[in-house]
Amino acid sequence: MSAYKVADATGLIKLDAMENPYSWTENIKTDWLETLRDCPLNRYPDPEARQLTATIKRLNQIPDQFDVLLGNGSDEIIQLLLMALPASACVLAPDPGFVMYKQLSLCLGLNYHGIPLLADSFDLDLPAMRSAIEKYQPAVIFLAYPNNPTGNLFCEASIRDIVKTAKGLVVIDEAYAPFADASFISSLGQYDNLLVMRTVSKLGLAGLRLGYVAGLPAIIEQLHKIRLPYNINSLTQITADFALSNKALFDQQTQQICAERSVVFNRLNALNGMTAYPSSANFILFKTPANRANDIFASIKQQGVLIKNLSTQGGLLADCLRVTIGKPEENTAFIAALTKSLGAP
Predict the structure, then answer these.
(1) Bridge-partner residues for 198, per DSSP?
(2) Calpha distance 44→32 (Å, rounded)
(3) Cis peptide preceding 96, ω within 30 of 0
(4) Sign of the alpha-carbon dihedral angle for 224, 188, 52, 151
(5) Cα–Cα distance for residue pair 200/212, rounded to 1 Å
(6) What is the 3-state secondary structure (H, E, C) of 72-111?
(7) Buried-most residue among 29, 137, 207, 261 (CB within 10 A)?
(8) How many CB atoms lie within 10 A of CB 66?
(9) Residues 263, 190: one domain?
(10) Is the dihedral of CA 300, 301, 305, 307 positive or negative?
């Protein structure tokens, strides 16, 4: 195994980590700091984060009959789900997908199986998924919706087929839901084995490290047995509750990011030799001319822009790079750097 490494972005335009590039207005910052003034740092935080949980349930229209568990980022929730499994359990996810599904499964000694996506569309290979479910009987299946790193929404009918077919849990990871206008939260009541996981990181609160999962109380109760006490600190609880109560600000920023996504997508596809794939997230995966991804990535970085090089993973990601949608001026700098890189010998 290798550690999950984060590139140093010092001095660079940072377009590699799917972050919201926009900050808060000064008046909202002032109001936020005021809410922190009387934070009781000498006391342990609310272990159940009741006020924040209520806010999350209200804003996401999660019915009262379902419970919500909060995690230190969605990474912790993935870890909790996998820690709850016996050592012989199998875990299933599409490939390519979010790397932590595999990383954490292997760390815990579980049997992980990645099922390749369809090469032409990056969609689920439903026959292959059904066959793998029958063969491995996975205890947990992870489906990112939209998918990272490809950015597309899987076929809804295929997902529902998988949920119905699976005897174990199916976790729909909706980290990028704000940019997709698609969700399975309203379907929670239709399936006993369905969990929906989200994070506030992509929305614009990556520094808080807050994720959450919704599902039947009987399932959430088991995860609470493993969750460390006080896993959501007081500053995160207060800040997240305050921020989510200013939903209009994030809605505006999300609209800006989606508008810029269309601009970047069209400009990428206008470049000779580039193939940008449609995205429902806040990033775009694109393919470079054969065997040039590493050189193009290095050239773009040398020009002051950091994106993500996925070509080293091979398979469907061979020759692929991924760029996060930034501010207009950041996106313009990226396209200029890419254009110059393509002109290099």
Answers:
(1) 212
(2) 21
(3) yes
(4) positive
(5) 9
(6) CHHHHHHHHHHHCCCCCCEEEEEECCCHHHHHHHHHCCCE
(7) 261
(8) 18
(9) no
(10) positive
Phi first, then psi: what are they for 28, rounded to 5°?
-70, -40
User: Tens digit of pLDDT for each residue in 38-60?
Assistant: 999 999 999 999 999 999 999 99
Give the residue numbers spanning the domain of 277.
13-18+248-343
State which of 196, 219, 245 marks the end of a domain.
Answer: 245
- How many domains is the chain built from? 2
Q: What is the CATH number of the domain that holds 317?
A: 3.90.1150.10
* Residues 6 or more apart whose Cβ sits within 8 Å of residue 141: 91, 92, 93, 133, 162, 166, 168, 169, 170, 171
The domain boundary, picked from 245, 265, 290, lies at 245
Q: What is the pLDDT of residues 84-141, one digit of tens each?
A: 999 999 999 999 999 999 999 999 999 999 999 999 899 999 999 999 999 999 999 9
Is the Cβ–Cβ distance between 296 and 271 less than 8 Å? no
Phi, psi of 74 (to 5 degrees): -65, -20
DSSP label at residue 278: P
Residue 333 lies in a domain: yes
The predicted structure's pLDDT at residue 344: 54
Q: Enter the pTM of the model.
A: 0.95
Q: What DSSP line would sit under 307-320, residue for residue?
A: -EE-GGG-GGGTTE
**Do the Cβ atoms of 334 and 15 come closer than 8 Å?**
yes
Residue 248 one-letter amino acid: A
Q: Quote the CA–CA distance of 171 and 214 in Å, as a whole number.
A: 10
pLDDT along the chain (345 residues), means of 10: 80 96 95 96 96 96 95 97 95 97 96 96 98 98 98 98 98 97 95 97 94 97 95 97 94 97 97 95 97 96 97 95 98 97 73
Q: Are residues 231 and 293 in the same domain?
A: no
Question: Hey, what amino acid is at 197?
Answer: M
